[in-house]
Request: fold
Amino acid sequence: MGITHMTTIHSTTLRRSAVHAAPPDELAQRYQQVRRVTEQLGAPLSPEDCQVQSMADCSPTKWHMGHTSWFFEQFVLAAYAPGAERFHPAFAYLFNSYYNAAGTRIARPTRGLMTRPPLTLVLAYRRHVDHAIAQLLANANESLRATICPIIEIGLNHEQQHQELILTDIKHLLSQNPLDQPYVDHPQPARSGDVAVPPLTFGEYEGGVVWVGHDGEGFSYDNERSRHRILLQPYRLADRAVTNEEYLAFMEEDGYLRPELWLDAGWATVCEQGWLAPLYWRQLDGAWHQYTLGGVRPVVGVEPVTHVSYFEADAYARWAGGRLPTEFEWEHAAANVPITGNLLDSGHYHPAPVKAAGRSNGDPGPQGLYGDTWEWTQSHYSPYPGFIAPPGALGEYNGKFMCNQFVLRGGSCATPAAHLRATYRNFWPATTRFQFSGIRLAEDAP
Amino acid sequence: MGITHMTTIHSTTLRRSAVHAAPPDELAQRYQQVRRVTEQLGAPLSPEDCQVQSMADCSPTKWHMGHTSWFFEQFVLAAYAPGAERFHPAFAYLFNSYYNAAGTRIARPTRGLMTRPPLTLVLAYRRHVDHAIAQLLANANESLRATICPIIEIGLNHEQQHQELILTDIKHLLSQNPLDQPYVDHPQPARSGDVAVPPLTFGEYEGGVVWVGHDGEGFSYDNERSRHRILLQPYRLADRAVTNEEYLAFMEEDGYLRPELWLDAGWATVCEQGWLAPLYWRQLDGAWHQYTLGGVRPVVGVEPVTHVSYFEADAYARWAGGRLPTEFEWEHAAANVPITGNLLDSGHYHPAPVKAAGRSNGDPGPQGLYGDTWEWTQSHYSPYPGFIAPPGALGEYNGKFMCNQFVLRGGSCATPAAHLRATYRNFWPATTRFQFSGIRLAEDAP
Amino acid sequence: MGITHMTTIHSTTLRRSAVHAAPPDELAQRYQQVRRVTEQLGAPLSPEDCQVQSMADCSPTKWHMGHTSWFFEQFVLAAYAPGAERFHPAFAYLFNSYYNAAGTRIARPTRGLMTRPPLTLVLAYRRHVDHAIAQLLANANESLRATICPIIEIGLNHEQQHQELILTDIKHLLSQNPLDQPYVDHPQPARSGDVAVPPLTFGEYEGGVVWVGHDGEGFSYDNERSRHRILLQPYRLADRAVTNEEYLAFMEEDGYLRPELWLDAGWATVCEQGWLAPLYWRQLDGAWHQYTLGGVRPVVGVEPVTHVSYFEADAYARWAGGRLPTEFEWEHAAANVPITGNLLDSGHYHPAPVKAAGRSNGDPGPQGLYGDTWEWTQSHYSPYPGFIAPPGALGEYNGKFMCNQFVLRGGSCATPAAHLRATYRNFWPATTRFQFSGIRLAEDAP
Amino acid sequence: MGITHMTTIHSTTLRRSAVHAAPPDELAQRYQQVRRVTEQLGAPLSPEDCQVQSMADCSPTKWHMGHTSWFFEQFVLAAYAPGAERFHPAFAYLFNSYYNAAGTRIARPTRGLMTRPPLTLVLAYRRHVDHAIAQLLANANESLRATICPIIEIGLNHEQQHQELILTDIKHLLSQNPLDQPYVDHPQPARSGDVAVPPLTFGEYEGGVVWVGHDGEGFSYDNERSRHRILLQPYRLADRAVTNEEYLAFMEEDGYLRPELWLDAGWATVCEQGWLAPLYWRQLDGAWHQYTLGGVRPVVGVEPVTHVSYFEADAYARWAGGRLPTEFEWEHAAANVPITGNLLDSGHYHPAPVKAAGRSNGDPGPQGLYGDTWEWTQSHYSPYPGFIAPPGALGEYNGKFMCNQFVLRGGSCATPAAHLRATYRNFWPATTRFQFSGIRLAEDAP
Reply:
């Protein structure tokens, strides 16, 4: 469930990716940078905060920190640094998220029960692994570098996925504490009344036979491959995301009470879960507030709505007279848009207010495709033509989630910028709300 | 869940479909024919058999009989035969499967609790409705005919869907009775050893930009529309379905015990449900048998495997080194294949042995595309381009199931022949096994 | 769960009970009488009514009819009538409620799925068994009579238990049908306003060392044995049951909304199940009605409240400033009270209005101890001193329910009069509401 | 559920208990002692260990520490030390286990999610409360002392209950960690083969009319009151507890596989939970080991079996041809036995080997009644005669658990010695295994 599962290790893949790997020195430097980000994300947290798993879909910060280190120990050091000793014999078991055979890893929902090793020991584990990787890279000959650099590349992408999850998982945990404490302090943003939401406009796309998928230049996951042609009908894509103000209108028109707006399974979920608003929303003194990583604050109308499930995104679109885009409509529109926006690197950890649509003043495309919130598409997560699950660990970890999940595109305020690209496919079940997920509308072109 | 939900009533649809309606006399005759089939399907059953609902996904035969009659009473007689009295004031409530508003219909899983009205009264209800429809058709002027004929047309297609469900639902019920009694008696088919399974061959298709979907000539459901172009990669499609003998090889190679062959959600289901074979299979005296509508008999190797879920179909395909076709690959291959085969009309109610593939001796296409078993495709059930849920009852009943279901194509031994076409989209969740669902393999063309 | 499980077959028991058995001719006659009652109870029901199981705690009427016949076939005919053939080889499996070993009986919640054999065949089974028993009794010599009469005695008590269950189970089924049809037609009783509820008075009992339990003269179940002495504190017992009018006062004072009135587990049940009134109560046009075996009618104030769980009885008592009696307080008070009242034999199948308490006009004891409703006691169902589960089938079927159930005393309007005695212990879990269970208050004597 | 709920606060109780309170100086000293024990129990634990709740029945150590302090703040300081400020306004909410009204406390199963306040702050809270209580006691006049001392007395008993729970809850948590680390290091005890289990002998008791319950001299909970007479049949009580060696014989004779040995609900639990041995037992290299608070070690035959449910205790007794004692048989036998044994104060935290029965060498009674393990009785937890739930908080917290629980007697290796008495009634549901619960057999006297 979710992007954490996409990581793959397979010799063919590695060899094929090898040519794209960065030079070793640059890689060593980037390794340091990426690993430091993880630790910086943990810095505001106590040992208690890092310990607890607030639901089965989430993992403790401590586990994220151990697991990402285990990845390098397991797939690089154990395989290619023969002298290196394992930091602790039980860590392979404790921090393995992989599905090898029955009994070889702890059940996901019990990760939070592992109070030992303590956080201090996991941080020591990180330093141990970092030191060994640095040494290995420094001393590797050409041939060894050609082998290990692509694996390290994968490990860094894997770690970036977990950086996003550290933020979404800790948000879920802290949101349940009645003390309402923030993860980090942030200045209050503009309030709803201060800024007007710019009108929603649509860009028009001709469609036709277009290319989608990743071409293999640079890093990609295999669910993005291979690059292939599809036939797109003409369509229109909104120039910005749906805002809280717009979503509130849906709520005020009884959006959560009208079964005709919902998918059948969505309505069942609304009834079972008692959904009446996006996740983390609550009413205080008659006004909607939301728990953010900066604490509880009033819902701001000009911000993109976030923490909505696929079901809510779909119901909103139906209510609004539009629909969600397909993942290929999104990718086609994003093909030439630079990857900038309110991403993890901004340190804001919350969607930023939408701006007046760029298209009206000559901007070549829609705003906010990258960052702020992942955008639900109407595309079930399915394999691309030519995708056949290969044998081995890789085969176990790619196609196996291609069932009953929907594709999201574009990254969020918790996604590292260096992790994204136009072809990147994130995926979650239709019920998922704890990710920074939002809505961009589409329409058929007339 | 399933084809029973696809029925739609919407004035626009009706008007649009009107031109395709058969002449009234022909329609009156066909009405009689279709309705009689339903009653013939119920004939071998006792009042007790017709009463019970063996699981939430199934409905009692008595309910199917009442519900299909209610359709004509509700949408034809109540609207266009002003003099006609309702047979019973509570039947609109008891036999409505529609989702109008909270509280207006009985919960689906409790249909089997309604021991009253008894079967005899429901059969009287059928006769009452049939009589009134016949009179209405006989006396209608041109204008009224133009209005009601398309609705009756829908009603007949709706009834045909329920004919298939009567068979699958009663099979599920009777299979649980330790008396192992048949629904109808049938001669034993050829036993496994008697006939050799012909070798599996593949037909090759060039792909390219092709048309899919229904063009609006004749009856169709709106999930088949509109007709549009897509781009198909070259592919190969098996000339026949996977047989029991082949599926047994999968089982003997521990297919149900190897997680690497399964989708993640599929493996979870296998473990939870303890699946070790297709539904209705059991071991007797060391040999696999299966409950059929003709009673319990040995599994016959040359018959297509049936009552497998999407998860099993997908795992089998992975084990066999192939994959499932997309729904468009299937539709493209079927475009010019005549709709013949082992369908409900044959009265066999069980898949027939596969024959030597036609292609080798000049036959223009694959065998068994229609009938025997529905064939799982790898396509999630999603809307076609241009599909927007319209307002009203129609809007409630089309797109609302387009989530977490997979498309099946081709009909089964329980599907009326007149109900099928190349563009017909059946859909069920990936866990479903009580339908006559089977497997046809596909591959990428080299 | 419940009285259906108390039946026991054990050679020691049988021999010990033999001396109390009625003479064979009288027994043959009584056999006929008891068996006819069962069939009369089924007479108003259709094959569909007799087929369905509305929840796991209930059984179909057809099953009750088959199971009670199987009892005689299994324990009398199969053992002592060597010539007698089994009516059908599979019936031992289909109608066995006993727990011999894994896999030898159908799971209780699936009894309603067995649409075959049909009701007609089960009725033929009854006639077959009755004929064989009559012949066996007629031809048995002294020694055989001494053996089989006590078993037949048990079988008749067993059948009487199932007569009560036929009524409670069919009530549960029919109550869920929106047609609200009665099981039998009955004249409307006096309405609430017509008759005043007589004031609640209490009888006083000195307590002390008293005898409780069955002395072995005549039939008894072993959970009533052995007779032993206990020490009772002085207590007071209400002269009549709690009425609907009194219970409505509890409801109007927010009885179902105040956690302080409830046992912890009771409050959890109230919240989970959304209980707001006794089972079968509903509001129509602003007034409380209840489904009875005579159809839906207004709640009558002077009738004893019924279909309340232990939790509701306990909460009511707390609200009323009293408590429930212990089973020994009840038994001591009932010791010399004749077994008369509104029992199954009256054919009313619903509690009758309470009368002015007898005590005021010289009557030696409380009214309504027997019949109308079973009365919850505060006593957990536990073994009497000296009770040790014996080996064999008997051991399996006595002590095994002595956990987390409460004792009820006195029988109901669905209990055959001949089945009751002062020492009779019925028992159900604290959540049970589908039995005719009601409330009698007690207090400590000052 | 369990002893943590028995605490009561009620003005009448307090006033009634006041005469038994210790002198203030002595109380101040004892306050210090009891509170220090709690902190000593937490000393071996990390912040992570103190944070996690391993199942709903358990609570985090941090919560136990906060909750016991809140008790004194809420019921003593807030009421009688007007100047004292609350340490933190939210702590009343976070650390309240009481059931006042909906929404005023956090749901029990989510206690472990409260990562804030951190452990350091909770320890500061303890010091703050301790300081304020010490000052209040030092400065109180006679009248105030008469008021607060009984409340403090209750608070200390309450804290002792939580000391036991700290040990049982942390054991449950650490037992799930694959690192198998001990809570504290302990020397290995004698191994099974080294010491012979002394033969099991029984003491005989005449029974008759005897007194049970607490007489009100010194502290007691109200479920122990009032003292009253009952009539006991003659009985025999085992001179020592059942040992692991004896329990292993039960296991080796397929005790967990034979339904006839189990209560019906017990067998259902065995099947659902897959029980095959007591909690914390596991097989390593073909030998049974158990997780103890000293780590994993071989099961020692001469130690009392512990961590068995009521169901297991009952099944064992049936297998052994005996039964469990009633709570009154136990209390009567224990009436004159001094309260010594392997209790929390010994710091061993694990049952000690049984010794040769005392009775043979002139000892007046059975050994090991106090300490080692709580002993399941066959008595459902029910009110004593005269018990009526009083109004107010007290009423909410006494009778409300008297449903579907069984009484245990005698304390365990985790119970403070000063907390116990012969009349003390512990209670848990029949499924509970995480307490130190064991088995002592009884029999009817001939």
Observations:
- Residues 1-19 of chain A have pLDDT under 50 and may be disordered.
- The first strand of chain A starts at residue 202 and ends at 205.
